[in-house]
Write a structure and sequence with these properties.
The chain is an all-alpha fold. It has one domain. The chain is built from four helices and no strands. Helix 1 runs antiparallel to helix 2 and helix 2 (32-57) packs antiparallel against helix 3 (61-91). The longest helix is centred in the last third of the chain and has 31 residues, at 61-91.
């Protein structure tokens, strides 16, 4: 039983670290598309790890089912919203910013 508690704590801690990485990416990346990528990837994995850690501590199959459904719905809605934001930005003419090194290599 203590092994499940340790694994659950590690999974929840790792999930929190991925949430932190996604937040830092949101604040540090240069353009909208990089920020969306950081949020959808890091937050999706962070939520999956937190749900896994919580599922290890769950007392019944019903609780685990609810956690899986929460993860599924949040994952689907997050990626769908990010896609819609990116598509709208692209249709409005918003282009990704290129780094200084990429600009120098272009003819």
């Amino acid at each position: 039983m203590i092994l499940f508690d340790i694994l659950a704590a590690l999974a929840i801690l790792a999930g929190a670290c991925f949430f932190m990485a996604g937040t830092i990416g949101l604040l540090r990346f240069p353009d909208l598309f990089c920020r969306l990528h950081a949020l959808t990837k890091a937050d999706g994995l962070g939520l999956a790890l937190i749900c896994l850690g919580t599922a290890l501590l769950a007392g019944s199959a019903g609780e685990i089912t609810r956690l899986v459904l929460i993860w599924l719905f949040v994952a689907l809605s997050g990626t769908t919203c990010a896609h819609l934001v990116a598509r709208h930005a692209r249709s409005d003419g918003f282009a990704a910013r290129h780094t200084h090194a990429e600009k120098e290599t272009r003819p």
